[in-house]
Design goal:
This protein is mostly helical. The chain contains 13 helices and 4 strands.
Length: 323
């Protein structure tokens, strides 16, 4: 059995940023969203069979890696359950392209702001729940609270800034109004993610040794995980929601949109989509998926437990930070 692939690890070196980017490019590849349930189930079956050493005779390494790519794009890394299609990381680019593009096209009236911020937070809630750390459960009441709070925050920020800009002749004629959706998204992420993962923050998430031995649950690890996910999500939106307004303002200044008003939405979607193809894996890869926490950063009782159970005591434990 020597020379077999270790499917518990990525095919790329996760200790380097470049290796993580390559891995996330595969996980977030929007083309994998086109895979049928039959294709996904076949990929899962091959991965499971290979792990058990029972793969079909003649199976190549490339076939295994191709199956692993599909498996990682659609199944939860902890539970092995097939994720809801809108919550998969492979849906991030097409989903965000449509919603973000429309947020930056239809932002001048209050009804438009409310509808598209509602749509964005609905999508975010699905993604956050789907990609949570599975060692903690969350009730329907908590889900509702997170959704309502984040939607209220994003709408409040968007409407307040929009009204302020509309009252200023100088600002209303400039590019600044196009950045309102970005500021609303940033504010919402700071609320949505902690609330969606509040059970993790209250109860802790599972921490394990390097060889996978579970030690217990750590609130400090949960806090660290959330503090890594929030900036990653905000930075993920920055290129698409920062670059697109500048491109569209340049087209507007040259009279292109005035001559061809129909091009506004398609051009916005195109620039947004191209930006997201790069920014989604690049920002998801900022922090390792399997994160480390030093023994000294654990709660005293958990640190004591580690020192009793594991000899010699490891310098770090590991946890799944979620996406």
């Amino acid at each position: 059995m020597s020379g077999r692939l270790d499917l518990s690890q990525s095919r790329y070196d996760q200790s380097t940023y470049l290796g993580r980017v390559k891995h996330m490019f595969e996980v977030t590849d929007p083309l994998t969203i086109l895979a049928s349930d039959k294709d996904l189930d076949s990929a899962r079956d091959l991965v499971v069979a290979y792990r058990a050493g029972k793969e079909p005779k003649g199976t190549t390494d490339e076939q295994v890696w191709a199956a692993k790519k599909l498996y990682d794009s659609a199944f939860h890394p902890q539970t092995g359950e097939k994720n809801f299609i809108l919550g998969r990381m492979s849906c991030q680019v097409p989903g965000n392209m449509i919603i973000t593009g429309c947020m930056m096209t239809f932002y001048k009236s209050t009804p438009q702001l409310i509808f598209w911020n509602f749509a964005n937070q609905s999508f975010n809630a699905i993604v956050n729940y789907t990609n949570r750390n599975a060692s903690s459960s969350i009730s329907n009441e908590m889900l509702a609270t997170a959704f309502v709070s984040a939607t209220t925050a994003s709408v409040a920020v968007a409407v307040t800034l929009n009204n302020f800009i509309q009252k200023s002749p100088t600002l209303s004629k400039g590019v600044i109004g196009r950045f309102v959706p970005l500021m609303a998204v940033g504010a919402a992420n700071c609320i949505n993610i902690p609330l969606m993962r509040q059970v993790e923050l209250k109860e802790g998430i599972t921490v394990s040794t390097e060889d996978g031995k579970e030690i217990g649950k750590s609130k400090n690890a949960a806090l660290s995980a959330v503090l890594q996910v929030i900036p990653s999500r905000i930075l993920m939106a920055l290129p698409s929601m920062g670059l697109t307004p500048l491109v569209m303002a340049a087209l507007d200044a040259r009279g292109i949109i005035a001559r061809m008003p129909w091009i506004n939405l398609p051009a916005t979607l195109a620039v947004t989509g191209i930006s997201l193809v790069v920014s989604t894996p690049a920002c998801c890869a900022i922090f390792p998926q399997t994160a480390a926490i030093s023994l000294s950063s654990l709660e005293p009782e958990l640190k004591e437990k580690v020192e009793k159970l594991v000899r010699p005591a490891p310098s770090h434990l590991y946890y799944n930070k979620g996406l």
